[in-house]
């Protein structure tokens, strides 16, 4: 009897069967690096026609990689928020700024306390986001945006709208050198410390997402929060951890940016929110949550880094670059939504 | 046909619709007369919805011909379909909750006076349309303040406002009580008398015999046949739907019932249920019967730790279960298949495998590694046991038919290897084939010595599967019936608070 039934069930499903979904992930991941390669080729062609200079040089590639490392570090954590189905952490810019300015302030007590203090304030912001969005279910965008403004206000209030410089806070040469080297240290005079940090975060992030129970729970939560809850998953904790991870990488990014600019100031992380989200969606992680990978997202950061570099070499102004990046973001989100809809997954 | 039937309102001549790899509707011819209620039945995935979507203008690539009032039309977009007088009423209502009845009914065509909305005219027109469905409410009330049944009537009034000549109703009674269904049928009757052609899709055969003039049965994308309701029997229609006899239903197998596994004492959640006492044994299927609102699902939520009890206790195999959060109860061996498959049960965007393993993530984790591969064999076994089609673990669950989705949901809970499995409406909205498979799996679970608590509104299912049925009414257990005492009629009377003789 059961044999008949399975045949029956077989035909019953027909009306809705749509192509398998095994393709997606890998092609998306590989695809983004393909696009990065196309940008390199574009740069090479532009240079060979004499439109831009110095693209194909070791120094330029180092510059690109340093910039990608900075953006990439911030993006890894933010990607967990996106993957959890909560779009983005808009408080990343001031988390970076606060971590940076606090570290400069605390430099007077030494390098290690400075880094520890930065982590403490950064993670505190993450914890607040985790509680308010994870447990109290506030709208993630609105809440983190508000958090961003509050933090900015705090910075400008406490430091009376001033920038502070590491050498203002300490005379200790070793401490200053250590702080300088957060960004500037290079292995074999070549690979910067931030690049190493990015690689570590990327590998750890990919592992966390793909190979641990937390990753599996986050995937389920990001895809269908209620179903996750009804599967016995503590969704509040799962979502909260995603926001803490975002704050953690924002803190590391903040330290790196502050080391790079040698100044602690409220504007230090400006623009990283949108750049990170753009990298995330270009890298194949949809805003609906539960899809994509950290490897893909870093590919997205790489594409943005290349694009910025070529635009700068072409002499395109900062504002025009912003417009172009914005337009690309809109296009990617639009195409994504459309292609998902045509596959019958219009909930994304 | 009666002589007063003027002619065909709708004729679909050998229409087909393909999806990649399959034919959802295969050369179907379908005719509806003006002034006729024409029931369209078939199991899930038989092609009914696709056929009706075609009529609603959802596809621009169907083949075959469609005639409306003898005129050939091409229904390639929803606006064209609307223009030709096709009105659709779906299961899920399309009303905006915070705005008023009048604004909903006249959405998109509010009467204007210059730049402003003519509120007076809006109210009058809304009142007129509400009158057609016998709705006597203040048109300024927001939808969220009226009942489900009234909202359903508002939906009908809204569609009538577009003066359709063909009205398609897809499971319009699924959320209604018996009296409300009767009132809806009176309205449908009135519309029929006014010459509307009505296509009525339903899983409930008694409703079809009550309201329809003719019935068309579909199976596997093809039309099996059309019959006058007066000449058809229920048996015959079910047989056309499934292609085999219903006698196979509920052939009871012997089970051995062991010692007490679950004991519930004085369990209460204020406002939902009070002083609930019962016990369930190994190998037993305990049915819980009650009307909607009796507190059945609320009880289940407390039994699995989704909500906290205000009083009372739960014992599993003689040991008190006391902890917070569903994960704790799940680890102890109490699992809950919720009645809402689409939002609470499955993550529709994820694969069959991800869903099947979603309740056992902690168990597949060793150290920090989550070993999905360790669950692969379980997934394959369950897909086979439950005849999930296609048996492809990588397939997105949302792309399966409803019946197969429900099988995956059951697989998810069987995979968690529960000692007590609470099933809340395990076969709601599922085709007969899938239902049989699910029932078989539930019986096997009990035969293996597990306890099943079956909450269901499907009376034949309760009567056929349960060893005992507890009747729940207004938050209390009012009666218990043994398998021998249990009949559909007796359950229904007891659930309504009337004693059977």
Structure description:
- The complex is a heterodimer of chains A (348) and B (501).
- Chain A is built from 15 helices and 2 strands.
- Chain A has helices at residues 2-12, 23-48, 58-83, 92-106, 111-135, 140-158, 166-169, 173-184, 193-211, 213-223, 225-229, 235-261, 272-282, 294-313, 318-342, and strands spanning 186-187, 191-192.
- In chain A, helix 3 runs antiparallel to helix 12 (235-261) and helix 13 crosses helix 14 (294-313).
- Mean pLDDT of chain A is 88; it is low at 1-25 and 344-348.
- Chain B has 2 domains: 8-247, Rossmann fold; 260-348 and 418-495, P-loop containing nucleotide triphosphate hydrolases (Rossmann fold, 3-Layer(aba) Sandwich), CATH 3.40.50.300.
- Chain B has a 6-stranded mixed β-sheet, with helices on both faces. Chain B has a 6-stranded mixed β-sheet with strand order 18-21-22-15-23-24, with helices on both faces.
- In chain B, helix 4 packs across helix 5 (148-160), helix 13 crosses helix 14 and helix 14 (402-415) packs parallel to helix 15 (432-447).
CATH superfamily of the largest domain in chain B: P-loop containing nucleotide triphosphate hydrolases
How does the major sheet of chain B shape up?
6 strands, mixed
Strand content of chain A: under 5%
Largest sheet of chain A: 2 strands, antiparallel
Largest interface: A-B, 46 and 70 residues
Give the domain tally of chain B.
2
Structural key phrases:
heterodimer, A: 348 residues, mainly alpha, two-stranded antiparallel sheet, 15 helices, 74% helix, disordered C terminus, B: 501 residues, alpha/beta, Rossmann fold, 6-stranded mixed beta sheet, 17 helices, 32% helix, globular, disordered N terminus
